[in-house]
Design brief:
Elements (H helix, E strand, L loop, with lengths): L1 H8 L3 H17 L3 H17 L3 H18 L1 H5 L5 H26 L2 H10 L4 H11 L1 H18 L6 H6 L1 H29 L18 H22 L5
Length: 240
């Protein structure tokens, strides 16, 4: 059952790495609006195919909001909004890459990523360090939530109005315990790297069996077709 779930509702990590490369090049070297929207549409459809409906909704709303705010001066003629609009325009450019990375993190186990990187020939030390480092982000998020809940229990951040009334004090009460916990977490992650044998030269076995499915091939074809169209448009062979 676990293998079926992995096969049908998750992207093969090797395919994800092959998709991230052209996706980054597209949004960096050719910030054409049509290609950005097409890339974001592919990512949102992929989220729906992976049954990440809540994630797709959040990213769609965020992208639509950034899109409107980025083009608001042009639509309304309000020149005084040009500075914040330029900031949202930069956010809009990186949305496809960020959304795809969020999907990969939400649907890929660290063991699957380690298996994929080993098949691609990456050294063991890099694989273990990367997989352990990826655990730091959700761990840090949990620490922020735990400290925030503790502050609310003690009445230190009872409402958004109380935080707005004393922002410096609220940030201090939040960050001091979090920073203290970060040091402990860093030691634990360092021990985890050693415990997982980062220095070994032996080939590791894996609990996961990775197989490239038809949906993965379709994703590669679509993404590299967009990439080829971007390159041709960049060279002036086809109209953008």
């Amino acid at each position: 059952m676990r293998e079926e779930n992995v096969r049908h509702h998750r992207i093969d990590p090797r395919v994800a790495l092959l998709v991230l490369l052209p996706l980054n090049v597209e949004v960096t070297l050719y910030p054409h609006l049509g290609y950005q929207v097409a890339s974001m549409g592919v990512v949102l459809l992929l989220m729906l195919a992976c049954r990440q409906f809540a994630l797709a909704s959040k990213w769609a709303i965020a992208y639509a909001s950034a899109f409107v705010l980025a083009h608001l001066p042009g639509m309304t003629g309000w020149g005084w909004l040009s500075s914040p609009a330029s900031m949202f325009l930069m956010f809009q450019r990186v949305f496809p890459v960020a959304a795809f990375a969020a999907l990969c993190l939400a649907t890929t186990h660290s063991g699957e990523l380690a298996c994929a990187l080993q098949k691609l020939g990456f050294p063991s030390r890099l694989i273990v360090s990367l997989c352990v480092a990826l655990r730091f982000v959700p761990t840090l998020a949990r620490e922020f939530r735990a400290v925030g809940e503790a502050m609310r229990v003690r009445g230190m951040a009872s409402s958004p109005l109380a935080v707005a009334a004393h922002p410096a004090r609220s940030i201090e009460r939040l960050m001091v315990p979090v920073i203290g916990r970060v040091g402990i977490i860093a030691d634990e992650l360092g021990n985890a790297v050693v415990a997982r044998g980062a220095d070994t030269t032996r080939r590791r076995s894996s609990y996961y069996v990775l197989r490239v499915q038809a949906a993965d091939v379709l994703l590669l074809v679509v993404e590299y077709a967009l990439f080829a169209a971007m390159v041709l448009a960049r060279l002036g062979v086809v109209a953008p």
